[in-house]
Design goal:
The protein has one domain. About 55% of the residues lie in helices and about 5% in strands. It has 3 helices and 2 strands. It has a two-stranded parallel sheet. The longest helix has 14 residues. InterPro entries: Phageshock_PspC_N. Keywords: Membrane, Transmembrane, Transmembrane helix.
């Protein structure tokens, strides 16, 4: 039994280098989930103020692991 699945949309989570401020992680997340870039950046800053170590580590790991896409 085999299934042939075809998907019309092939979205991947990647850093957005055209709209980046630091490394493009927030811009890439906003582009992938179709959120405003400003809202994602404000949420990231709020998370950094509430959970500085966890957010900082998550941002660094995301900037190292996410592929670059212009």
């Amino acid at each position: 039994m085999s299934f042939n699945r075809e998907y019309s949309v092939q979205k991947t989570l990647a850093k957005d280098t055209r709209h980046k401020k630091l490394t493009g992680v927030c811009a890439g997340i906003a582009k992938h989930y179709q959120f405003p870039r400003l809202a994602v950046r404000v949420a990231a800053i709020a998370a950094l103020l509430m959970f500085p170590v966890a957010t900082g580590v998550a941002y660094i790991v995301a900037s190292l692991l996410m592929p670059v896409k212009g």
